[in-house]
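Box 4.2: Ligand-aware structure prediction
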Amino acid sequence: MTEVAAKDDARFIWPVEDTSRAPYWVYTDRELYALEQKHLFQGPVWNFLGLDIEIPNPGDYKTTFVGDAPIIMVRTMDGGVNALMNRCAHKGSLICYKPRGNVRELTCVYHNWTFDLEGKLTGVAFRKGVGGKGGVGPEFDSNDHNLVRLRVETYKGLVFGSFSQETPGFRDYIGDELIASIDRVFIKPLKVLGYHSQMLPNNWKLYAENNKDSYHASLLHVFHNTFGVVRPNMGGGIKLSDNGWHHLSYTERTPPNDDETGREKVRSLKEQYKLHDSSMMEHRLELGDLVTNSIQTIFPNLVVQQILNCLAVRQLIPRGVDSSELIWTVLGFEDDAPDMLELRLQANNLVGPAGFISMEDGCVGGFVQRAAKADPDAQTVMPMGGRGIEPSAGSRVTESAVRGFWKGWRECMKI
Ligand code: FES
Ligand SMILES: [Fe+2]
C-alpha cells in the first residue's frame, strides 16, 4: 500500500463540492481500495463484528473481518469480549482458521506460538533452543510480540471493534436518535435463528449505498409494489445522524388495514396476482408502534433490519475492489412462542440471497459495477431531495442518506 494519503493523491479529487455526484473510480480503483483499508476500516469508525450471543461461553470465538483484516472475536475467561487481529505475531499466519470454536488459549499452527485470550504472547516453542543450542536471544521481549488488539464496544448485544483510539464511544458515534432506533428493535434477549450469506459481484460501497437508497424500494422491488409491503404513499421517513454517516429509513402501516388479531391483511395491487400462501406477509405488531419496515445503517458495515417480523443484522465485508460478501444473521427473541417463530421464518422468505424482495439488491450492484469499469471519471448523480443530507419526515423519495454515506466516506478518506 502506498504511504501517500488519499487527500494528497491528485488522482482522487472529488468532482464537486458536495456529495450529490460520485465518480465511478470509487468503485473500480484498486489503489483506492487499499487506501480504504487504512483510512476507513482501520480509521475512525466502529466496525460491526458480530453478536455477543454468538460467543456465550469463556473461550468461545468467532472469526470475522474488518475490511480485509481477519479478526478473532473471543469471549474472555472473565466474561468480556475481545477483538484480536487473526494474524500471528511471528510470521503472520492465521491463528484461527475455522469460523468458530472454543479455546483456552490461541495457538498458532505454524510454529506453535501461544497467546492468551487478551492477545498476550505466552509461549514461544523452543524458546531456549534444543540441547543448549538455538532459541531466541536475551534481547527478545515477549511483550513486544502480542497480537494486535482492537477497541471493543458492545451495545444491546451488537459487538463493534475499532482500530482507532480517537473514535468517540459508540453512543456518541451514532447519536441519541439512532441509538433510540436500535433500542426500539432490541427490546429483549435475542436468539440467532440462522444465517444467509452471499457474494455480491460489486464493490462494497454499492451495497452500502443501496441500503440507504429508499428511492429504489418501490421501483426495483416489484414484489413490494405488487403485494404492498412498501408503497410510496405509506407513512414513514428518513432519519440521519447529525454527521450524515448513519441513517434510518422506515415505513408505517395504515391502521384501517388491520384485523382484530393485530395482523395486517395482505392486499394485492394487481388483482391478477395472488399469493397461494400469504403467511410470509403477515405482520404482528410487537415493537410498540406501527412500523412495518425499518432499515438502519451504521457506517460503514452494518444494517439492522426489521421487515415485518423478520429481524436481522447484515454485515458487509469487502472482498476486493469488485466483490463483497454479505452475511445476514436472522434473529428472534429468546422467549418467542412457536407461532411467533413461524411468523419470523415465513417473513424471512422476503430477504437473503433468494428473498422475494432482497434478491434484486444482490444483482443490481453488479449491474453498476459492470457499467462503471469503462469510464472511471464519469459520475453518478444523486439529485433526489436536494443536495444536502437533511432528514425527511414525510417522504422516502430522497437520496439524502446516500449523500450522507459519501460524506462519511469522504471524511474518512480525506478526499
Ligand atoms: S507464524 Fe505463528 S508461530 Fe510462526
Ligand atoms: Fe433494495
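In the box above, the bound molecule is FE2/S2 (inorganic) cluster. Residues 88, 90-91, 93, 108, 110-111, 113 surround FE2/S2 (inorganic) cluster (ligand 1) (CB under 6 Å).
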